[in-house]
């Protein structure tokens, strides 16, 4: 059983203790050290070489943002931002992700009274998945340092390079749905701004986030994209050249109206049994019968299996599925289960995702 060392960074002794107790619930995780400030965090990252760091945002002497930037510059290691501030200031969260943070989590979600066991499990699973990916990447880089290993891999890549199974069929999709979770905001940033102004299909994005984060995310992308980006609202009519980001805390459905226009239905929907709000499965299940073979779905980095059932429905109606390859995923969870179920038409690294999408739109 692999174990991963976690450095817990927080200026509050109470918070350090609470977070440490949560981490130690999982036998694969152990607290390798604690730090009370950004300065101490940098020193201990260099000295203790943790597999992953949980980092508070607001600390004396040096805040979490400054420490994160320095860690990414001098000794890169996965960092999960963990703070109460992020639910009041999503911009700080997005800044942290841009600086290199692997993900973020709200202390309020972890430390609330009568916290649900599945929330703790999700947090611990996320830490393990991120740490595991980082260790595998580091191991692979070490292997590539020898000339013989490098030559072997070069030859293997030349001989076994997979070819895209998606044929070039420009204009064969009428709707693009993108689903992602852990690592999603950064992945989206490498795709969404590349769509040209004359993109002739609507795009729906489902990103797992806490409530209150999807509207600022949409505003952020609207400022840097050629297309108009907005948080989806109940009753929105899908229009080409627009990107709709499904709101956190709700489920987003697609409905075909009497005049054949397609509208978004955004509901609280407590009866839907899923951890995810929005759920990729829910949206794909409603879109596939409407768009059938003209639906293109893309599943990017993320933990868990959301999207698996939805992609089964997409394939039932002869739609197309693109998934992100393991090499570029922050967490190879959602794409993996879809690929292993045989539902993906093609699996490519993030750098090739936009190119594959453009085959169809």
From TrEMBL:
Phosphorylated by CheA. Phosphorylation of the N-terminal regulatory domain activates the methylesterase activity. InterPro entries: CheB-like, CheB_C, CheY-like_superfamily, Sig_transdc_resp-reg_Me-estase, Sig_transdc_resp-reg_receiver. The keyword Hydrolase applies. It catalyses: [protein]-L-glutamate 5-O-methyl ester + H2O = L-glutamyl-[protein] + methanol + H(+); L-glutaminyl-[protein] + H2O = L-glutamyl-[protein] + NH4(+). Its main location: cytoplasm. GO terms for biological process: chemotaxis. This is Protein-glutamate methylesterase/protein-glutamine glutaminase. It comes from Acetivibrio thermocellus AD2.
């Amino acid at each position: 059983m692999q174990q991963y060392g976690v450095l817990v960074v927080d200026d509050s002794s109470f918070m350090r203790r609470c977070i440490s107790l949560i981490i130690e619930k999982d036998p694969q995780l152990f607290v390798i050290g604690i730090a009370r400030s950004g300065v101490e965090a940098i020193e201990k990252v260099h000295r203790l070489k943790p597999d992953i760091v949980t980092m508070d945002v607001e600390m004396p002497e040096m805040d979490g943002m400054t420490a994160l930037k320095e860690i990414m510059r001098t000794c890169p290691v996965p960092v999960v931002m963990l703070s109460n501030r992020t639910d009041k200031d999503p911009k700080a969260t997005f800044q942290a992700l841009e600086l290199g943070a692997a993900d973020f989590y709200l202390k309020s979600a972890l430390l609330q009274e009568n916290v649900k066991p599945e929330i703790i499990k999700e947090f611990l699973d996320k830490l393990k998945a991120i740490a595991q990916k980082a260790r595998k990447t580091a191991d692979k880089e070490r292997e590539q340092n020898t000339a013989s290993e490098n030559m072997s891999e070069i030859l293997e890549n030349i001989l076994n390079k997979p070819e895209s199974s998606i044929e070039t069929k420009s204009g064969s999709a009428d709707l693009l749905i993108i689903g992602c979770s852990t690592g999603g905001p950064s992945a989206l940033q490498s795709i969404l701004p590349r769509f040209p102004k004359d993109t002739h299909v609507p795009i729906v994005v489902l990103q797992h986030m806490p409530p209150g984060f999807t509207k600022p995310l949409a505003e952020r992308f609207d400022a840097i994209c050629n297309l108009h980006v907005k948080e989806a609202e109940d009753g929105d009519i899908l229009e080409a050249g627009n990107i709709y980001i499904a709101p956190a805390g709700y489920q987003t459905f697609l409905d075909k109206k009497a005049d054949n226009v397609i509208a978004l239905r955004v509901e609280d929907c407590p009866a839907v049994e899923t951890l995810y709000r929005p759920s990729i499965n829910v949206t794909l299940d409603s879109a596939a019968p409407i768009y059938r073979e003209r639906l293109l779905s893309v599943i990017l980095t993320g933990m868990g299996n959301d999207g698996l059932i939805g992609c089964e429905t997409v394939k039932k109606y002869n739609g197309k599925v693109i998934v992100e390859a393991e090499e570029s995923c922050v967490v190879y969870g959602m794409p993996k289960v879809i690929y292993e179920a045989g539902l993906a038409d093609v699996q490519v690294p993030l750098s090739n995702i936009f190119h594959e999408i453009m085959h169809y739109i």
